[in-house]
Amino acid sequence: MGINDDQQAPLTIAQARAEWDVQKAFLDSCSYGPPPRRGWDAMQRSLDQWRAGSLPWQPWAESVDTSRELFGRLVGVPADQVATGAAVSQLLVPIAAALPDGAEVLIPDIEFTSGVYPFAVHADRGVLVRTAPLNTLAEAVDESTTLVSFSAAQSATGEVADIPAITRRAREAGALTVLDGTQAAGWLPLNAADVDFLAVAAYKWLCAPRGTAFLTMPTEATAADDSHPRRAEFFDRLKPLAAGWFAAGGAASYGMPMHLADGARAFDISPAWHSWVGMTPALELLLGVGVEQIHTHDIALANRFRAGLGLEESNSAIVTIDLDQGKLSWPGALDRLDAAGVRYSQAGGNMRFGFHLFNDEADVDTALNAVTDTMTS
Ligand SMILES: Cc1ncc(COP(=O)(O)O)c(C=O)c1O
């Protein structure tokens, strides 16, 4: 199978699932996403090439541009609006540095650290990180807010943000928006054009190796906002602070003058080659299935799990159970999950289960059987 372009019929979930060798019942996509076989194989081939010294490096580096283009398709922007890097926190550095002294950054009170600390480290120049509950984040935006940074799906709880409400209010207030799509891209349809910046670490729901991440940003033309001097001033200050030879377009270069690549590519850092080789086939596969189809599948599994636990339906592929809720008996449930081979994670005091395209109803039922046996009513 090659790239499934728009003309080809989408792959079914069953066809896609056949590409995974993941053990039963892996329900931990919130921590990391096992690769499809085509991604694993491509990466192993490139590691062999490296080991034997049989190829130049350029074909590995080309995977970065291919992945950039594929990710752009996934979130609805052209490749020149996509920067590549190694981690969300790293990609947010230039954004945080462009904030003026004394700027206020608004975040949900349970936001994952990588979307918080890049801003919080600027406290010495008066940058203030203010928190508000996720469900009232839109109302918390006010005229003093310079930037709102929030996750599309929360790491600790799986809660899905009301992106239209938050971005609408931010736009009214002239505030910039940074959306962290790490726990969402790959199962939740995201449109990068809804926000100023969309940052995604690809090693979870995009099933890529660690060391791969994306940041989308507006073009110079779309960033210009005469009605909001504060926004215009911000984009004037935005600089590719980690610029090196890769930010110059990917061919080795020397000395001055500086020739940065056009568009978001100037924000690239030198890539972890082999990880990007493993990423490209994974993105092709996810696009071949289509996020809408994955969304329907993942939510159905999550809601089957929720129903079995006596929880209401939700719009998230992530289900969390509060360890202090008292409904489950500990450590019995943990022991039973381990004995059944269920992989899940603990985050922010919650047990966290993620349901993705390689999972099926049997995975849900394996986890349910382990957990519900220990439930108290
Ligand atoms: C919402 C969110 N953002 C980002 C990350 C990863 O951050 P980084 O790429 O800085 O390691 C995670 C990892 O758990 C996450 O849950």
From TrEMBL:
This is Selenocysteine lyase/cysteine desulfurase. It comes from Brevibacterium epidermidis. The keyword Membrane does not apply. Residues 63-309 form the Aminotransferase class V domain. GO terms for molecular function: lyase activity. Pfam families: Aminotran_5. It comes from the Bacteria. Keywords: Lyase. The keyword Transmembrane does not apply. Gene3D superfamilies: Aspartate Aminotransferase, domain 1, Type I PLP-dependent aspartate aminotransferase-like (Major domain).
